[in-house]
Every structure is written in C-alpha cells, then in structure tokens.
Amino acid sequence: MRRGTERGRLPRVVVMGGGTGLSVMLRGLKQKPLHLTAIVTVGDDGGSSGILRTELQMPPPGDIRNVLIALADAEPLLSKVLQYRFPAGTGLAGHTLGNLLLAAMTEITGDFVRSVKEVSKVLAVRGQVLPAADRAIVLRAELEDGRVIVGESNIPKAGGRIRRVWIDPPEARPLDEALEAIRRADAIVIGPGSLYTSIVPTLLVPGISRAVAEASAVKIFVCNVMTQPGETDGYAASHHVEAIVRHAGERLFDCVIVNNGEIPADVLRQYAEQGAAPVLPDEDNLIAAGCRVVADKLFRISTYLRHDAVRLSEHIVRLTDDFLASKR
Fold it and tell me: How far apart are CA 108 and CA 95, in angstroms?
C-alpha cells in the first residue's frame, strides 16, 4: 500500500497539456504504480490533425494519438505502425495511421470521446486519456503590436511577443470525467509543453482552471528546458508561471520543477540557430511567488533535447508521496 492512500488504491495523478513534452513524461510515469489520467489539448489545426479536423468536423487527433501511444502497453512494432506518416499518396500524404484510426473510430462510434476510449482498449492504455474539451477549439492570440493571430499553428510563426490568448467557441466545455478526475486527484501535473499553444489553452476551457484551483491535490508545474521561438523568447521559469496565472485567473501551483543542468555548448549552438535558449531557473522569483522549487538536471540528448522521463517521473512520484504523507 502506498503511503497516504486507502488500502489497494494507487495514487491518482492527472496530467494536463499536449505536445511532445507531455508524451515523453508519460512514458516515464506509466512505469510507476500510479493511476494516470491525461487531459489533452484539442486546439491543433496544422498538418494531418488540421486536415481531419476540417474535413470530418472532428477534434484534432494528433496530441491524443501521441498520448495514447505513450501510455500504451502495446508491442513496439504496433506503436511504430500507428506513428507511421504516409510520405505520398493522394489524400494520404502527411497523415499518420494513428490519426486515421481515430478518425475512422469516430465515424463508426459517432463520438470522438468514445473513439478514444475504444482505441485505448485496443492499445491496452495504462490510465485514462480525455480530450480537454467536448469539441475542437480555435486558439486566438493578441500580440503586443496589436495583431490578432488565429490558429494554433500560426501563432509561433507570427513573429511577435504574445500578450494574451483565448479560445473559441465560448460554449466549449470540459468533460464531466475530466472534472471528476481533477477533483479526485492526489497530484495534478501541468506541462511540459508549448506554453501558449498547449498548456494555457487546456486551462482556458471553462471550468478547468477553477477545478484545478479548488482540488485538494498537490499541483505541479513542469517547466520546459528550452524557450520556444515565437512563444516564450526570453522567458525564465517564473515568466511561464506568471503567464499561466494571468490567463487562468488563479494561483495554481504548489511546486515547480525546473532544469538546472548545464547543456553542452554544441547543443546550445544548434538551438541558438533556431532562436531557442535555456529557460533560466530563477528559483528566487519562484519561491517569492509561493512555489516550492525542485531543480535538477532534467534533460537527455538524442536527436533533440528532451526531458529525462525517468528522472522527471521520480520527482513527481516523490512530490506526490510527500503530499500524501502530509495528509496522514
């Protein structure tokens, strides 16, 4: 029995956001004795997801697909097949097989949420995967120069600093299951991921940020290792937290996990060519904002710099255990 939980119950951990960072983290968390729920953004409008969203009038499947595969207890070859992107073919070029599977299941079941649940069964997903809203959302951003940019895929390309973002339609609502998972959580983990195009849009779905603020769980923000050109140029860790609080209208976080490892110079040069730089782990400012700070070397390097899923998941489990122990 884990500390602080009822007999036989695993700690309940809710993760929120989207993008590659979330999927990487979940690959580590699924190896831990946790009950996981992933609440995933539905604002993508580019590539295969954008085409399916427009042509089939369905929520974009890309971020959901990545999370399903990250949490799947399926054979590695099956996961590879679902991530396969067709390089050519009229109507097929650019689509991943996993996106097409979710689109087909949505057509068969008549409901995107149900299709995600059915695919979860096929892949033996460890945990629960839920869209952040009951429909696709459109993301809009106002830049500091007054321009308004429409569409998640267009915002980072606009070449300006973001003042605020919001979502349409205003009648978008979270799933009851998502709100219930947040209410019952022992830990809520937000990030890593694109600040303005993955994390904030999830929290802007009406009712989500309020549910997080009212939950009795320990609330953890996992900060990105690198800035993202067109979104967080020049941002330190505290700027990420401030942007979330400004949009959510709530102080959400008890803990912030930041990278303080030294990134090799050759890797820094590669990222600098793309306009990215390390996110400064400004611990003093985070502490002044009322957050406990966990700082560690949190990256690994393969083709790209990614979060170290194993080390990150160990920190999340430790923070969850500390919280549960405090409730005994």
Answer: 19
Contact 132, 207 (CB under 8 A): no
Whole-number Å distance between alpha carbons of 300 and 287: 26
Cβ partners under 8 Å of residue 42, min gap 6:
59, 60, 63, 64, 131, 132, 133, 135, 136, 137
**Token code pair at residue 164:** 């605020």
pLDDT given at position 4: 44
Given CA atoms 259, 265, 267, 269 in this order, what sign does their dihedral have?
positive
**Taking 50 as the threshold, does the pLDDT of residue 206 lie above it?**
yes
Q: Find all residues with CB under 8 Å of 76, minimum gap 6, and list them.
A: none
Query: Cα(184)–Cα(6) distance, rounded to whole angstroms?
Result: 13
- CB–CB of 220/199 below 8 Å? no
Q: What is the pLDDT of residues 278-322, one digit of tens each?
A: 999 999 999 999 999 999 999 998 878 889 999 999 999 999 999
The CATH code that applies to domain 12-41+171-326 is 3.40.50.10680
Distance of CA 87 to the CA centre of its chain: 27
Angle at 184 between CA 40 and CA 189, to 5 degrees: 45
**Cα separation, 195 vs 208, whole angstroms:** 16
AA identity, residue 227? T
Q: pLDDT band at residue 7, thresholds of 50, 70 and 90?
A: low
Strands 35-40 and 128-131, by their bridges, are parallel
Q: What is the pLDDT of residue 171?
A: 84
Amino acid 2: pLDDT? 44
pLDDT value at 5 more than 80: no
What are the backbone dihedrals phi and psi of residue 15, each rounded to the nearest 5 degrees, phi first? Answer: -115, 145
